[in-house]
Amino acid sequence: xxxxxxxxxxxxxxxxxxxxxxxxxxxxxxxxxxxxxxxxxxxxxxxxxxxxxxxxxxxxxxxxxxxxxxxxxxxxxxxxxxxxxxxxxxxxxxxxxxxxxxxxxxxxxxxxxxxxxxxxxxxxxxxxxxxxxxxxxxxxxxxxxxxxxxxxxxxxxxxxxxxxxxxxxxxxxxxxxxxxxxxxxxxxxxxxxxxxxxxxxxxxxxxxxxxxxxxxxxxxx
Length: 221
Known about the structure:
Elements: H1 7-17, H2 20-35, E1 38-39, H3 47-51, E2 59-63, H4 88-101, H5 112-115, E3 119-123, E4 128-129, H6 141-155, E5 160-164, H7 165-169, E6 181-185, H8 190-193, H9 203-213
Parallel strand pairs: 2-3, 2-5, 5-6
Antiparallel strand pairs: 1-4
Helix pairs in contact: 1-6
């Protein structure tokens, strides 16, 4: 696996690339992509980092696994490419943005526009075999992405972490809450949202209030 990643992140994570677990992970990913259809395409695996440099990150949203259907995943959690039907969780995210901020429902589910404003859309696992959710979990990706969160927590100040659902909330232990803000809620998936754990969290307006108070430009959600 050729690690083509934004220079700002390469500098922070260089030590990870040299560790035995990452070399084993790299071998596993290469083999999987050679033998099976996997997502996202190889050049998109590190897209979240490429669109949101280390020193420009303002907000972190945690996902679990890339989408495993054709044409959906492109390296950023919850995001799909232009023209792709919006998955249920993304529909609920956009509904909450609209309810919270009074903005119209967007045509495109491509969240590059968020990432380019400083929102790191990080899945815990960065690859998946087609139609097999979780198939690349437990192979080392989680160690790598946990390291990225820890680096942000240690070396940056005043970040906002949005942790949605039980899996994301487990990442709280990696974050220094004395210098970063953490907003939590249920997951935007229909199962959680329909039980009342997602809608009304107002994370998008709250994030912009915090950014504005800190003298930072709010996100155009």
